[in-house]
Amino acid sequence: MIANMQKLEPLDFRFDARYRLQNARLSIRDIYDVITELVTNCDDRYQILGAKGKIEIEVRRHRGGKGSILKVRDYADGMDSQTMQEKLQGYGQRVSGLEKGESVRGTNSRGAKDIAALGRASFESIPGDGSFHRCDIHHKFIPYQSQLLKLTHRKKIGITKGTGTLVTVWLDPGVKAPTHDKLMDDISKLVPLREILSDPDRKVVVKNLNQDCQDQVHAPNVDGNEKVKQKFQIPGYPGATAKLVIKRA
User: Fold this and answer.
1) What pLDDT does residue 106 have?
2) What digits encode the pLDDT tens for the residues 76-109?
3) Which residues, 6 or more positions from 221, have their beta carbon under 8 angstroms from its beta carbon?
4) pLDDT at 95
5) Residue 186's closest CA among 31, 68, 53?
6) What pTM was estimated for this model as a whole?
7) How many CA atoms lie within 13 A of 133 on its CB side?
8) CA–CA distance from 135 to each of 8, 88, 89, 129, 166 (Å)?
C-alpha cells in the first residue's frame, strides 16, 4: 500500500529571457510588424487624448553587415519612468484601455516589448513633468535615471516643443529594411493601419534619413460593396465597443 504523498506549496513557473524572445518572434517577424505595433500605439495615445496627431516613421538603411535603424515618433502625452516600468517591464498585466471603458488596446504593452525580438529598442519620452525619461529593452528591461529636461534632450529625439515619445529600434543585421519607395507602398497596404491612414485626424509620414526626404503615407482607395457593418459591446468590458466592417470587392 502506498501512503498518500504530502502536497507542498505550489510554485510559480520560471521563465527566462530565451523563452520571452521565442514568444516575441512569433508575433514580430519583420520591420512591418514593428511599424504596425508602434504606429497603432501612437494612434491609441492620440485617441485617448481625443486629439489630432502626427506619426513619423524614420528609417536609416545600412549595408555591409550593419543593422539599419528604425524610429517612430509621436507628439502625444509621453510616459514618465514609472509608466514605462509599469507598461514595459512586465507581461500579462491587464493594461488595456478597455479596462477604463476606452476604445483602445493596451498601449505600449506586450507588443511594444516584443519589438525587441528584432533588435535593441529604446523608449525616450517627454511627458510634460519637466523631466526626460528613457528605458531600453533587449534581453532585459533597462531603466535610466530621469534627467531634468533640457533643449539638448528635445533636439536628440526631435520633439522641439510639447510632449511625445520616440521609439528607436537598432535592427539586427539580418533584418531587411526596404527602400523608401517600397516601404511607402507596403505600409499603405498594411490592413491593420488602413483605418489610421484614412483618418483625417492622423498624418503618417515616412522619412528616408539616407536621402533626407519624406512623404506622407495614404491608404489606397478600396472600392467595394459594404456587406457587414456592425457595432457591438465587448463582453467583460463595460462601455467598450468594437466595430466590424466587411466589404466585397
Assistant:
1) 46
2) 999 999 999 999 987 655 555 555 555 555 455 5
3) none
4) 54
5) 31
6) 0.83
7) 20
8) 39, 9, 10, 17, 11
Low-confidence stretches of the chain (pLDDT beneath 70): 1, 91-111
Count of other CB atoms within 10 angstroms of residue 203 = 15
Q: What is the DSSP letter of 6?
A: P
Quick one: CA torsion of 27, 31, 35, 38, rounded to 10 degrees? 60
Distance CA 217, CA 198 (A): 9
The grid coordinates of residue 160 equal: 522641439
> Of 25, 17, 6, nearest to 137 (Cα)?
17
Residue-range domains of the chain with CATH: 17-214 (3.30.565.10)
What is the pLDDT, as a whole number, of residue 89?
87
Distance between CA 63 and CA 83 in Å, rounded? 36
